[in-house]
Amino acid sequence: MEATHPAGPGPLGAGHIGQIHITVDDLDRSLAFYADALGLPLLFRVEGQPMAFLDAGGIRLYLGQAEGSVVRSQPLLYFTVDDIDAAHDGLIARGVPFVSAPHLVHRGEDADLWMAFFRDPDGCLLALMAERSRPAE
Q1: CA–CA separation, 120 vs 56, rounded Å?
Q2: Which residues, including other chains, have CB under 8 Å from residue 108's CB and lie 6 or more apart?
Q3: In the structure, how many helices (H) and strands (E) does the chain have?
Q4: Taking the model in full, what pTM does it have?
Q5: Distance of alpha carbon 86 from the chain centroid
Q6: Is 65 helix (H, G, I), strand (E, B) or coil?
Q7: Three-state DSSP state, 51
Q8: Confidence (pLDDT) at 7
Q9: Distance (Å, rounded) from C-alpha 28 to C-alpha 83?
Q10: What is the pLDDT of residue 17?
């Protein structure tokens, strides 16, 4: 798929996202979901505070209870997988509630983009995404 933005660092000089915050109501419940069901490695928990950090493929995922409505987040994260059907089936087996099964969202020149949507314990929408190469015609 062709990029619609110039390559290289943005106006802030940043080349990539380092951390994403997700507001959670119950840290232990959400940590079990992201670490156990999704398999993201736990980096650390902050002692005495409702904060935990996981590794999402090199991006630090920060789970934390909001201190107020100003910092409450509702991100939509897309997890890239090689085999969307296997990932979907594996997460269903772990009790992850899906909103949609894997489905085609875009036909590209050489590959098709597939997605499947699911929710975390706080209702945050998440997705699996995969590109499937098409055989040359």
Answers
A1: 15
A2: 1, 131
A3: 2, 8
A4: 0.78
A5: 17
A6: coil
A7: strand
A8: 54
A9: 29
A10: 79
According to CATH, the topology of domain 76-137 is 2,3-Dihydroxybiphenyl 1,2-Dioxygenase; domain 1 (3.10.180)
**Residue 2: per-residue pLDDT:** 47
Contacts (Cβ under 8 Å, ≥6 apart) of 35: 41, 42, 54
Whole-number Å distance between alpha carbons of 44 and 62: 10
Mean pLDDT (the chain) is 87
Q: Which residues contact 82 (CB under 8 A, 6 or more apart)?
A: 130
- Looking at domain 18-73, its CATH superfamily turns out to be 2,3-Dihydroxybiphenyl 1,2-Dioxygenase, domain 1 (3.10.180.10)
Q: Which two tokens stand for residue 58?
A: 């090199």
Q: In the chain, what are the domain boundaries?
A: 18-73, 76-137
d(C-alpha 123, C-alpha 137), whole Å? 42
Residue 135 has pLDDT above 80, yes or no: no
